């Protein structure tokens, strides 16, 4: 089964007096592109985390976040009493040597000074704590992979529908193709009579018609397009990691459809070609999301 490059995963780890949250999301990209936001306590684990993401996801633009739940009591800020007292002593010393007086709201002013409020979060991470967070990292990555599989199944269903539509449109070309040859021959004969009258070499005319109609023959294009449609479905069934290959096949399908349009020389066939192009464009848009 193919996988989408779009996905999201989240997991949490309860570690002592704090709650660690791991979030990861991905979008389509030609290569692996990872950006991380990790709190300082776990910053030394970044290379390990990146290695796990690359091994599991292979390709995509990935955003990874590891942070502490700000609503938990473990994330509350505490007043650094020593810093507050130091600020107050300096203020008292300054006012003792000047005419300024200490206002009643001085404490609220001091509480807004630098380094007064400190985080209550520990910076050292024990082996037991990292083991718990490490499992959360793996769980978030696994959740994202499962999300990708679900999205991939939806994409595969859509691709099969679009390929079936193009195949049906290709079959509908045949009646108009036979009718087209007769109309072209009739139009050419009428033009010949208008130009030189009825006294023209019928054998020479038939030879020229055969040469002209051969140029407009679309048998090879139809066969190649049919082969590409079958190959696209076969590639779908090969599993994930086929995004680039599917994109290449879609390009080849586009070439054959364009050639059909340039050779059609009939309004009904050109309308069918336009509908084929519409179906193919929808495939091309979505194939960019396939890993």
Please tag this protein with its features.
291 residues; elongated; Ribosomal Protein S5, domain 2; four-stranded mixed sheet; alpha+beta; 8 helices
Describe the structure in your own words:
The chain has three domains: 90 residues, Ribosomal Protein S5, domain 2, CATH 3.30.230; 43 residues, no CATH class; 138 residues, no CATH class. A hairpin with a 2-residue loop joins strand 1 and strand 2. The protein is built from eight helices and six strands. 61% of the residues lie in helices and 14% in strands. With 291 residues, the chain is of the alpha+beta class. 22% of the residues are buried. Helix 1 runs parallel beside helix 4 and helix 7 runs antiparallel to helix 8. Strands 1-2-4-3 form a four-stranded mixed sheet, covered by helices on one side.
Alpha carbon gyration radius: 35 Å
What overall geometry do the principal axes of the alpha carbons give? elongated
Helix content: 55-70%
- The neighbouring-strand order within the major sheet is 1-2-4-3
Provide the succession of SSEs.
Answer: EEEHEEHHEHHHHH
- Percent of residues in beta strands? 5-15%
Helix/strand class: alpha+beta
Number of helices: 8
Number of domains: 3
Q: How far is the first residue's CA from the last residue's CA? A: 11 Å
Oligomer status: single chain
| Largest beta-sheet details | 4 strands, mixed
Instruction: Give the rounded overall mean pLDDT.
Output: 85
Task: Give me the count of strands.
Answer: 6
The poorly predicted ranges are: none
